[in-house]
Every structure is written in C-alpha cells, then in structure tokens.
C-alpha cells in the first residue's frame, strides 16, 4: 500500500464542502483510491440515539462502546472531560488508506483546498492561511491554482497534487 496522504476542504459554513465531498469521493474511488474522511464538528453530536443499547451504554458511563453488525462496525469514545483529541491522534485511529480528506480542523497545519461560494458573502480564507494550496470556487481568484466548484475531475486533480503524506 502507498503511504497515506491527507488534504482538507476548508471554507465557511454554506460554501458546499460536504456536497463537494460527496461528489469527490466516488470520483477518487473510481480512480482506484481507497478514501476515508475526518469531519470536525463544532458542537456535540450523536451517532446513535436515545433508546438504542449503545446509547444506554454510553449514558451509563462506558468510556468506549463498540457496535458491530454484518455490514459495519463503529467505535464510539467518550472524552468524559478530557480535552478534544487533536487531528494527528485522530488520523492515527484510522485504518490505512490512500487518501484521507478532512472537513474541518481549519486551523490545523495541513494542506487544504479552500471551498468558496460567492453567494455566502464571506471573506476568502487563503490570504490568512498559508496551508491553503488551491481553491474550488464559483468565482475566479488568481492567487492560487483553482478549479470551478462543479468541476469534480479538476478538483480531484488538485486534491492529488497537493495531498501530503503522513505517518
């Protein structure tokens, strides 16, 4: 297996990062790559819901709950007052793949592609973030290599060009 590489999609809420990611993943898989993602949430979240056994185990105080079924398994870890793990730790928890695409952790030092939508009315991130290597946007910007927001093959090429090895 090749070395695992990472790249992020950075942008303001509403720029289209998740939509882009859901179009980019199948394209990259179609090129023979194994792809995983890391998503940072700025709020509390649940992957299960009240009434489920796994939820009851966590509510009872379990540090970790592993749920397994025929088609998937999930390991949930409660921080229980400990600091939020950093990106390097989280990447170390993943099984090896060719490419990890990160959505969030925009202040962490790793290569990123800025996703920008003019209708958001938000400022560009790249002037203040030296880790942004390229742009996917619906409006031209000459500062960095750029692809149109809907040009998935061109964005995939930028992803592969600027992804960095880890580990």
Task: Write structural notes for this entry.
The protein is an alpha/beta fold and 167 residues long. It has one domain: 3-Layer(aba) Sandwich (Rossmann fold), CATH 3.40.50.300. Helices cover 23% and strands 25% of the residues. It is built from four helices and nine strands; from the N terminus they run E-H-E-H-E-E-H-E-E-E-E-H-E. The strands form two sheets. Strands 1, 2, 5, 6, 7, 8 and 9 form a seven-stranded mixed beta sheet that branches. A two-stranded antiparallel ribbon has the order 3-4. A hairpin with a 4-residue loop joins strand 3 and strand 4. Helix 1 crosses helix 4. The longest helix is centred in the N-terminal third of the chain and has 14 residues. It is globular.
Give descriptors for this structure.
single chain, 167 residues, alpha/beta, Rossmann fold, seven-stranded mixed sheet, two-stranded antiparallel ribbon, 4 helices, 23% helix, globular
Q: Tell me the domain tally.
A: 1
Please tally the β strands and state the result.
9
Overall average pLDDT: 89
Largest sheet: 7 strands, mixed
Number of helices: 4
Tell me, briefly, the overall form.
Answer: globular
Query: What's the CATH H-level superfamily name?
Result: P-loop containing nucleotide triphosphate hydrolases
Give helix % range.
10-25%
SSE class: alpha/beta
What is the string of helix and strand elements? EHEHEEHEEEEHE
Calculate Rg over CA atoms: 18 Å
Which regions are unreliable across 5 or more consecutive residues at pLDDT < 50? Answer: none
């Amino acid at each position: 297996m090749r070395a695992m590489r990472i790249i992020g999609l950075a942008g303001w809420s509403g720029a289209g990062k998740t939509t882009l990611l859901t179009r980019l993943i199948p394209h990259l898989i179609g090129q023979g790559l194994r792809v995983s993602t890391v998503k940072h949430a700025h709020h509390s979240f649940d992957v299960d819901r009240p009434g489920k056994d796994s939820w009851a185990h966590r509510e009872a105080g379990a540090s970790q709950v592993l749920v397994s079924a025929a088609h998937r398994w999930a390991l949930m870890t409660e921080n229980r007052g400990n600091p939020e793990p950093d990106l390097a730790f989280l990447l170390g928890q993943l099984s090896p793949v060719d490419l990890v695409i990160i959505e969030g952790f925009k202040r962490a030092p790793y290569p990123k592609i800025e996703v920008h939508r003019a209708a958001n009315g938000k400022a560009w991130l790249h002037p203040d973030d030296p880790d942004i290597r390229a742009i996917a946007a619906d409006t031209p910007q000459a500062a960095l290599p750029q692809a149109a927001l809907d040009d998935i093959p061109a964005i995939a090429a930028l992803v592969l060009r600027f992804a960095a090895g880890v580990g």
